[in-house]
Amino acid sequence: MEQFLTIAIAHLLAVASPGPDFAVVLKQSVNGGTRAGVWTSAGVGSGIFLHVAYCVLGVALLLARVDWLFDLVKWIAAAYLAWLGAQALHSAWRPDAAPEAGNSGAVLAPGRAFATGFLTNGLNPKATLFFLALWTVVISPETPLRVQMLYGAYLALATFAWFALLSRLLGQQGVRGFLLRSGRWFETGMGAVLLLLAAQIVLTG
Question: Are 196 and 81 in contact (CB under 8 A)?
Answer without folding.
Answer: no
